[in-house]
Specification:
414 residues; mainly alpha; 0% strand
Length: 414
């Protein structure tokens, strides 16, 4: 009993960062990433998580241009920014625990399990474009690397880059055989006309690959096996990429390149000049050609490379303009990222899905982007109002309370 009480006291002493210890440029970067993620997710909210990939030929000229810009500059680059920040924050949390000689693994494990629970609720009850479940699973793997030296993290990240991008060579010859259009037709019908319970049932039971014609006379059991394998392989690739991005974030944290901008201005500038052109160039092949190989590498390789350039560029800009309204607005968003992320899903699915306003595939991309920007502005206003009165966002408070096994103070102290 005494040992248990001692352990609880040890855990309680490892507490969240207060505002004086925060890296405010990282909060602002997180908010910037959240904006980009919403703009990308608007395609999936309006046309389905698979269906949006098939809409380009039927769009108006302005919407085609908007779609291409989102694919080129945002798609595959802004959730990597968020992922890199996640790995960065995990290493910072570990370093704080080491400095105070406090327990870390159990605290971080609880943090991931709570995130997994929130992610499952989001995935099945709100929106099937969830990324939180992936983060929780990838975080469990990242836990084995968090103590390693920066060089080790970088080597493992590069190893994962090789294994993730290796299948792209084969993908060019086999990708066209995976015709997901029958699933898209089904998905569009369910999302546009289905009740809330019908859409939840759809999320719980349907595998997009089940409707793929594999070109063979397969019996139902074989068809189900291949569909399950492709679903697992797709999810495993996403998890592997998340781990790779966490490793990069951990590497940046251990090298401390993002902690002190003036000291690291030179290396940050090099990152912008190298990673941004290379990443955006690779993604150009994904957007402006019909080549399946370039499409594969543009998303899985070009996206993360561009993300590193975006991160470095944003940090340099924050050093000059961090006190402006724009960057402060991003910081408010970023400090309540979990609350704002889930709110975006609730609002947008209510607008577009059949159980809400039923605007699925009716507004067009340009108007959808306008909706997204209006929502972001509303979230900035609300986040600022909330954080003037409370220490954490609502879900952030719940997450931290569960993580540290102690009710966190919510109201700001005068």
């Amino acid at each position: 009993m005494d040992q248990h009480n001692t352990e609880i006291k040890q855990i309680e002493k490892l507490t969240p960062l207060d505002s004086s210890d925060r890296l405010h440029h990282i909060d602002s970067l997180r908010g910037f990433a959240l904006l980009g993620i919403l703009l990308v997710n608007m395609l999936a909210f309006q046309y389905g998580t698979v269906g949006y990939k098939f809409i380009l030929p039927n769009l108006s000229t302005p919407d085609k241009a908007t779609f291409s810009l989102i694919e080129w500059l945002l798609q595959g680059s802004f959730y990597p920014i968020f992922s890199i920040i996640f790995g960065f924050g995990a290493v910072m949390m570990w370093e704080r625990a080491q400095a105070k000689s406090k327990r870390f693994k159990r605290v971080f494990l609880r943090r991931l399990l709570i995130l997994l629970a929130i992610g499952c609720l989001h995935l099945y009850l709100i929106w099937d474009g969830d990324i939180l479940v992936t983060y929780a699973i990838a975080g469990l793997i990242f836990l084995f690397f968090i103590k390693r030296k920066p060089k080790t993290l970088l080597i493992w990240a590069l190893v994962l880059v090789f294994f993730i991008n290796g299948p792209g060579i084969v993908e060019e010859s086999s990708k066209d055989q995976l015709d997901l259009s029958p699933y898209v037709e089904y998905e569009n019908n369910v999302l546009a006309k289905g009740s809330y319970l019908e859409i939840v049932y759809h999320r719980l039971t349907v595998n997009p690959f089940e409707k793929v014609d594999f070109g063979e006379n397969l019996d139902p059991l074989e068809q189900e096996f291949f569909a399950a394998f492709l679903s697992f392989f797709s999810f495993a690739t996403i998890v592997a990429q998340a781990v790779m991005l966490f490793l990069l974030g951990g590497y940046l944290a251990k090298k401390r390149w993002l902690h002190d901008t003036p000291t690291n201005k030179r290396i940050l500038t090099k990152m912008v000049l190298i990673f941004l052109p290379v990443g955006v160039g690779l993604k150009g092949g994904m957007v402006f050609t019909e080549n399946a190989l370039l499409d594969y590498y543009g998303y899985l390789l070009g996206g993360p490379i561009a993300a590193l350039g975006y991160i470095a560029g944003f940090i340099l800009l924050f050093a000059k303009f961090g006190s402006t309204l724009l960057f402060q607005s991003f910081a408010y968003l970023g400090r309540m990222a979990l609350t704002n992320y889930l709110t975006q899903s609730i609002v947008m699915t209510t607008i577009f899905y059949g159980y809400g306003l039923g605007m699925f595939s009716k507004l067009g991309i340009s108007i959808g982007i306008l909706f997204a920007l209006l929502l972001i502005i509303a979230q900035v206003i609300f986040s600022r109002w909330w954080l003037k009165r409370y220490t954490f966002g609502p879900l952030e408070w719940l997450w931290r309370t569960g993580t540290y096994l102690r009710r966190q103070p919510l109201r700001q102290q005068s």
